[in-house]
Backbone:
């Protein structure tokens, strides 16, 4: 489920359906190309079709569902163009976030980064993939806070969601944790040292980790991609 800093206190049936389906899509319980119907989902959750329709619309806005009039709704296949677009936007946003964070980091920001890295190490040593994933998100959120651009995290979340499914397909998550933790350590050290160039270089290297995965998955699971 996508972390959402803007969640309201009062949840609705739309939220419940959205969160459940998002989790299933993100974790590949629902695979690219799988078909789902409003009627089936409504029956599964014991709700009317309207909240399901609204949840479908939210998922479509995230490029996770393809809704077609008079045809079955399906889990959206990967689009190389959309992946490239998402990664371009995220790289541009995170570059500015890192420059600002490295310029503005103070003692409080340094403490937040040290605490985050310590928690990541604990999760990695415990082989707690789910917790490490949440801490990964939080690390990037902390950088936005330090850079005084909290709103940038909403954009990062949206673009990250568009490629997270590829990460699920392509990585042995336990094996990748040390690599990602090392990247985060380099980023944090550069930010704390007020070195914007080093922070950006480490950040872009971190984002490039997905290149090999994209190439491998597009070759081995071509049916998961939209070649239209």
Residues:
């Amino acid at each position: 489920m996508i972390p959402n800093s803007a969640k309201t206190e009062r949840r609705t049936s739309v939220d419940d359906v959205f969160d459940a389906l998002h989790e299933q899509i993100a974790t590949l319980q629902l695979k690219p190309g799988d078909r789902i119907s409003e009627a089936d989902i409504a029956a599964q959750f014991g709700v009317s079709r309207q909240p399901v329709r609204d949840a479908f619309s939210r998922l479509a806005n995230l490029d996770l569902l393809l809704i077609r009039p008079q045809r079955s709704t399906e889990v959206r296949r990967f689009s190389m163009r959309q992946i490239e677009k998402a990664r371009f936007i995220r790289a541009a946003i995170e570059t500015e976030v890192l420059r600002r964070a490295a310029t503005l980091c103070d003692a409080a920001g340094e403490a937040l980064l040290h605490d985050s890295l310590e928690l990541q190490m604990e999760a990695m040593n415990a082989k707690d993939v789910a917790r490490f994933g949440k801490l990964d998100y939080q690390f990037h959120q902390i950088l936005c806070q330090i850079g005084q651009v909290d709103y940038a995290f909403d954009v990062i979340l949206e673009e990250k969601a568009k490629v997270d499914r590829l990460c699920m397909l392509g990585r042995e998550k336990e094996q990748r944790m040390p690599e990602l933790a090392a990247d985060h350590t380099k980023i944090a050290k550069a930010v704390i040292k007020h070195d914007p160039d080093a922070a950006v270089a480490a950040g872009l290297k971190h984002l490039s980790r997905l290149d090999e995965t994209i190439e491998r998955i597009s070759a081995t699971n071509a049916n998961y991609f939209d070649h239209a």
Q: What stands out?
A: The two ends are 29 Å apart (CA to CA).
